[in-house]
Amino acid sequence: MVFLTSFLARRFPLPRAPDKQDNFWRKSMWLRISSKFYGRKRNCFGLAIVPGWRALRYSTRARKLKKENMKNLWEIRLNAACNEHSMEYHTFMTSLAQADIGLNRKVLTDLAIYEPRTFQSLVQFAKQRQLEVGLESSTIDSPHGIFHRGLPNKS
Amino acid sequence: MAHARVLQWATMARTWWVFDAYRQCPFKSSSKIAHYLIGKHKPIYDPLSDIGDHVVVINSKYISMPNDYWRVYKYFHHTGYPGGFSETAAWRLHEVDPTKVIEKAVYFYLPKNLLRRGRMRRLHIFPEEQVPTEILTNVSDQIQQVQPVPKRLDEYTQEEIESFPKLFDWPEDFILQSGFKKAESLMSESKKAEAGGKKTETGGKKAETIQSGGKKEAPKTGSKKTENPQTGSKKTENPQTGTKKAEPQTGTKKAEPQIEKADSKKTGKKH
């Protein structure tokens, strides 16, 4: 509990005895964690402390899970976006990585949603690269309304 | 600006897909149909947002189950009361309602959340190819089938069957005849026996040996063949009584359509 001004700190009722103040701050810390819980877990310290521990455990686990879930979601979206241009997701990502195009999944997903023509150009580049490597045969159709001189070559 | 706004509408619009379930596995196709019902084919996919498309499934009457799933695969139900358990085989459910098997397959495949019912509302299943025009006019694309449609033997022309490559011909002793072919061969042999006497005696014995443990027609026809060479002519003379003489003929005549029916039933179950 942070008091930005001494005025606010004085408004907060504290126990008179100084030895009881430590206990008060400890309880208020747990109640701050349980402030969004449902029912009496929100206000009663005895009920709040066990769900409070559990919430901290969940949040520790969730720090890792959030990254995994977002990665899965981006992969699903990119898979859909690649399939629209009849391209495999893994082929697409591999050919981008081999060509030193440093776009991660999040940026590619944003491009696929908000700038579909840009994404189509990237897919086209990946297809061209597959043709050059000769591992997979693919067909290229240029995006509608875009004029270009040619595809960039890796030096 | 209006143009950009309209483009956004097109992104959010629900498109309609058609899926031809003719001789397709309902379990494999359910995963594919659910993919479109959930909206996983769109770059704007989100697990909590309802962005799925409509799917029109046609020819659901002609789906094909793997292995002997028509008999083995069961649907369970319990009323909650003692003795309220019941199970229905897949073939039985398919008889009652030919759209039910694929509907249940998709329902089981969809994620179990509050969006499931709404997604099922966007699945339109029709047992035949006839679809109401107000639905068919919405359809803009089709979903690829999950497996190639198999071809029955009677759908091939005689030329295709003869030109099918084979390494060698099996010797005649190795070929076991059964079903319709067996009846055909028996018919032809009996005709031969009727036409000319002693040549078919050995053939008749062969037929007996092959058909040991088979159906009841075999010994009758065999006895008939063995009888004929003794008598020499077919109708005028018979060592046994007139009633017994009539039996083998009627027996064979009855047997032929039965075998044919059995064949058609088998093939009917397969596809």
Question: How many distinct domains of chain B?
Answer: 2
Q: How much beta of chain B, percentage-wise?
A: 5-15%
* Rg of chain B, Cα atoms, Å: 29 Å
CATH topology label of the domain at 28-133 in chain A:
c-terminal domain of poly(a) binding protein
Bin the helical content of chain A: 55-70%
- Kindly report how far apart the N and C termini of chain B lie: 54 Å
The CATH topology of the largest domain in chain B corresponds to: Ribosomal Protein L13p, Chain: A
Instruction: Describe the sheet with the most strands of chain B.
Output: 4 strands, parallel
Distance between the termini of chain A: 58 Å
The averaged pLDDT of chain A comes out at 85
Number of helices of chain B: 12
Protein name (chain A): Large ribosomal subunit protein bL20m
Keywords (chain A): Ribonucleoprotein, Ribosomal protein
Pfam families (chain A): Ribosomal_L20 (PF00453)
InterPro entries (chain A): Ribosomal_bL20, Ribosomal_protein_bL20_C
Report on this structure.
The complex is a heterodimer of chains A (155) and B (271). Chain A has helices at residues 6-11, 21-33, 45-84, 89-98, 105-114, 116-133. By secondary structure, chain A is mainly alpha-helical. Chain A has a domain at 28-133: c-terminal domain of poly(a) binding protein, CATH 1.10.1900. The radius of gyration of chain A is 28 Å and the shape is elongated. With 271 residues, chain B is of the alpha/beta class. Chain B has 2 domains: 13-147, Alpha-Beta Complex (Ribosomal Protein L13p, Chain: A); 172-270, no CATH class. In chain B, 49% of the residues lie in helices and 10% in strands. Chain B has helices at 2-12, 26-38, 69-72, 90-96, 100-109, 116-121, 133-136, 158-162, 179-195, 200-210, 217-231, 242-270; strands at 16-20, 54-58, 74-78, 85-89, 123-125, 139-142. A 4-stranded parallel β-sheet of chain B has the order 5-2-1-6. In chain B, strands 3-4 form a two-stranded antiparallel ribbon. In chain B, strand 1, helix 2 and strand 2 form a beta-alpha-beta unit. Chain B is elongated. Chain B starts with a helix and ends with a helix. Chains A and B meet through helix 3 and helix 5 of A and loops of B. Chain A: It holds the Pfam family Ribosomal_L20. Chain A: Keywords: Ribonucleoprotein, Ribosomal protein. Chain A: One of its GO terms (cellular component) is ribosome. Chain A: Belongs to the bacterial ribosomal protein bL20 family. Chain A: This is Large ribosomal subunit protein bL20m. Chain B: Residues 228-243 have a biased composition (Polar residues).
